[in-house]
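HOLO CASE FILE
Compound: D-[(amino)carbonyl]phenylalanine
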Amino acid sequence: MRELVVGAAQLGPIQKADSRADVAARMIALLEKAAARGCGLVVFPELSLTTFFPRWLFEERAEVDAWFEREMPSAATRPLFDRARELGVAISFGYAELTPEGRRFNASILTDRTGAIVGKYRKVHLPGHSEFDPERAFQHLEKRYFEPGDLGFPVWRNMGALMGMMICNDRRWPEAYRVMGLQGVELILLGYNTPSVNSQNSAEGLEKRLYHSELSVCAGAYQNAAWVVAVAKAGDEDGHPLMGGSVIVDPDGFVVARAQTEEDELLVHACDMDATRFGKTTIFDFARHRRPEHYGRICAQTGAEIPEE
Ligand code: ING
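Model generated. Tokens follow.
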């Protein structure tokens, strides 16, 4: 039994006017609650430090870059890293990364129990659009503000387990889980900021979006015999609702913990990493069952190629 007590630290809304210091204080409060409940690892959402700024068009580069971190730990997050190290708790959280070369990514980091960063991931699947779209009820300009991730989907050894990360829209793409599954991943950590309504179809309500999020995460967990921890930033951000629905999912695809609110909320579950062994050595023993000679389209094509009439 390789048990890891994992905390999913859902964040409620972060307003445009909220400071990173205010947010870090909220994250530390959740971290301390998690430590008190025996957590060894705490997972925070996508873009944990600020409001979901891609919902607006910013014309000036300086306005955009104000939402990005130039170093990690940054001044605002140093107290979070310090407290995590004092408590001996590993953390994972998302933030907007501005590299010294001037490249911009929707990124996340993972630390070990000493607060050392052991992994970085950069969001590969960027949803939304790059130009202002007047047809939309609100913007989703991730393709404008971020480059697609350039690190692939790595898996790291951390705390005696094989861990990987993805971010938000990645959870809807089975390829993301499988690339990590093919590295033996046992625990996938992801954060998300998902609008409660569809900016292009007001008929698509919260219930459907919560279902699609959970469906994607449960399928990814089951089909790769891995634990998946999916953590929302939720609630009304300056009049723009984000959905909750944070979950911890076991390697059989069952939800073992689910958030009940759209506020700062902590889920805790003791995740046995050895619970991934049965799936990985029977139904999803990739080496025995996969037939990659028939999967060529998955890497050869980007879009669908429809057979002629
Ligand atoms: N947000 C959303 C997500 O993938 C989205 C965008 C919502 C795409 C619903 C498709 C359907 O959860 C981010 N930040 O990727």
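CASE NOTES: The chain has one domain: 3-286. Residues 131 and 144 are 7 Å apart (CA to CA).
CLOSED: yes
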